[in-house]
Amino acid sequence: MLVMKFGGASVKNADGVRNVGRIVSQYAEDAPVVVVSAMDKTTNALEELAALAVAGKHQDAAEQLNRIRDFHCRTVEELFGDRKLLVLSELDDLFTELEQIVRGLLLLGDSPPRIFDRIMAFGELLSSVVLYRHLREILPSVTKVDARKIIVTDATYKGAEVIRHLTEEAIRKTLLPLKEQIVVTQGYIAATPDGRVTTLGREGSDYTASLLAHALNAKKVVVWKDVPGVMSADPRKYPDAVHLPRLSYDQAVEMTFYGATVIHPKTIKPIQNKGIPLEVRSFVNPEAEGTLIGYTPAENPPPMILHKSKQALITLRPGDFSFMDEGRLQRIFSALRKLNINLVQRSAVSLTVCVDDAAETIRDVVSPLTDEFLTETTSGLSLQTRLYPRDFSVPAGALIIQLNERAIHAVLPD
Ligand code: ADP
Ligand code: ASP
Ligand code: MG
Q: Does 3.40.1160.10 match the CATH number of domain 2-225?
C-alpha cells in the first residue's frame, strides 16, 4: 500500500487539483490512500472567520464566510463545468453547517476551543469533496473515507494527542477492505472516541499520512510539496539552499525539530518505527528525484540552516543566590512540562530554556516558580540552528558545544 499526501499549495486552484489528479493517476496501480489538506490558505481564512465571529462582527464574519464559499465554488465551476451541480450541493451542505456554527459563535461571543476545531476542520472537509469528485471523474474505483472515523484522539483541542491503539484499529478495519481502491481522506482532522471533532495541530496533515502508513504497513509515504524536496535551508529565505537527495530518519527528525517546516515534526517517528520510507517530492516537477528519508543518511551534507520562529527565553536563578542544583532543576522541569522546550542551557547559578512562545501558558507555568526563583522572560525571538553532519570535527573530541553571551562550552573527554 502507498500513502500520498497533498498539501494546501498543491490544491490551491482548479489547475492544482487537475495536476494532483494526474499525479494520482500515475500511481493508480498502487491504489494509494490520498491525504489532502485544505485548499490554499483556507485554514487561515477559517481561523479569521472564527475570530470575527467571537468578536461579534456579524457583517465581517458573513463577508469572510462568503469569500471562503466563493473561492471553493469558483474552483468547482472551473473544474466540473456543467457537471458541477452535485459537487456544489455537497459543498452547500458543508457551508450550511459551518454557517450554523458561526451563528452560534456570534451569539455566544466566546470561542470554546472545541468549537474552534469544528470550524477549522471545514477546510479539509471541503477540499476532500473537490478532490474526491475530480478523481472519480478521471479514475475508476475511488472512495472517500472520513478521517474523523479513523484518527482517534483525546479531547485536547487545537493539537490533540492521537490514541494510537484506537487509531490503528480503526484505520485497519476501515481501510484494509478498501485496499484495491484509491481512497481519499482528510489530513489534520480527527475526532475523540465519542465523536467530537479535533485537529492534530496546524500543518498536521503530514502526520495523518504517517499514522495511516504505520497502521497499514505501507510500502512508502510520498508527500508532495512546492519545493524539490528537503533542502539544506528554507529556499524561500536562502536561495542558495542545496537539495538533499537522501536523509536518515534521525537527520530528518533533527531538522524538523529545529524548524524545517517542510515536514511536520511528528511525521517521522511512526514510519521510522516500521522502517517505512518517506519521499518528499515536487508536485511542480513530479518526475524529479525528491528526497528519500530512510535509513541512509545524507552523504556529505552541507551545514543545514534552520529557523524556529516564535520563541521565548526563560531564565531562572535561585532567589537566594545558591547553586542551580538537581533538586531545583527537577522542580523547574516539572513546572515547565506544559511548554515545548527546544534548548536548555544550565550554568552554576541559572537555567535558561528556549521554548515555543505561548505567552499565556508561559505566564501560568512561570508564576508559581517566582517564590523560589528570580525569573526573566524574553519573547519575540527565533532559534537559529546550524546543524552539522555527525562527523563535523569541532574541537577534537568535543561532545557538546554551546555558545552563550559570555562563554563557549565544549564537553570533552576527560
Ligand atoms: P504543505 O503544502 O504540505 O503544507 P508546506 O508549505 O507546509 O507544505 O511546506 C513546504 C514549504 O516548506 C516550502 O515552501 C518551504 O518554504 C518550506 N521549507 C522550510 N524549510 C525547508 C527545507 N529545509 N527544505 C525545503 N523546504 C523548506
Ligand atoms: N490545513 C491545515 C493547516 O493549514 C493542516 C495542513 O495543511 O497540514 O494547518
Ligand atoms: Mg502546510
A: yes
Please check whether residue 97 is in contact with residue 74, taking contact to mean a CB–CB distance below 8 angstroms.
no
Cβ–ligand 2 distance for 37 under 6 Å, the answer: yes
pLDDT (tens digit, 9 = 90+) per residue, 86-112? 999 999 999 999 999 999 988 887 778
**Where along the chain do its domains lie?**
2-225, 304-413
Q: What is the mean pLDDT of residues 261-271?
A: 95
Question: Is residue 158 within 6 Å of ligand 2 at its C-beta?
Answer: no
Among 43, 124, 230, 261, residue to substitute to test ligand 1 (most atoms within 8 Å of Cβ): 261
pTM of the model: 0.92
Distance of CA 56 to the CA centre of its chain: 30
Of all ligands present, the nearest one to the C-alpha of 123 is: 2
Q: Given CATH 3.30.1240.10, say whether it is the number of domain 304-413.
A: no
Q: Report which protein residue has its CA nearest ligand 1's atom 2.
A: 7
Distance from residue 202's CA to the centre of ligand 3 (Å): 8
Question: What residues pack around ion ligand 3 (CB closer than 5 A)?
Answer: 7, 203
How do strand 408-411 and strand 220-225 relate by DSSP bridges? unpaired
Cα–Cα distance, 394 to 398 (Å, whole number): 7
**pLDDT one-digit tens code per residue, 357-397:** 988 899 999 999 999 999 999 998 888 887 776 555 555 66
Residue 39 beta carbon below 6 angstroms from any ligand 2 atom? no
Distance 180 CA to ligand 1 centre (A): 31
Taking a C-beta distance cutoff of 8 angstroms, is the pair 213, 3 a contact?
yes
pLDDT recorded at residue 396: 60
Q: Give me the pLDDT at residue 410, please.
A: 65
Supply the pLDDT for residue 302.
85
Distance 7 CA to ligand 2 centre (A): 7
The pairing of strands 189-191 and 182-186 is unpaired
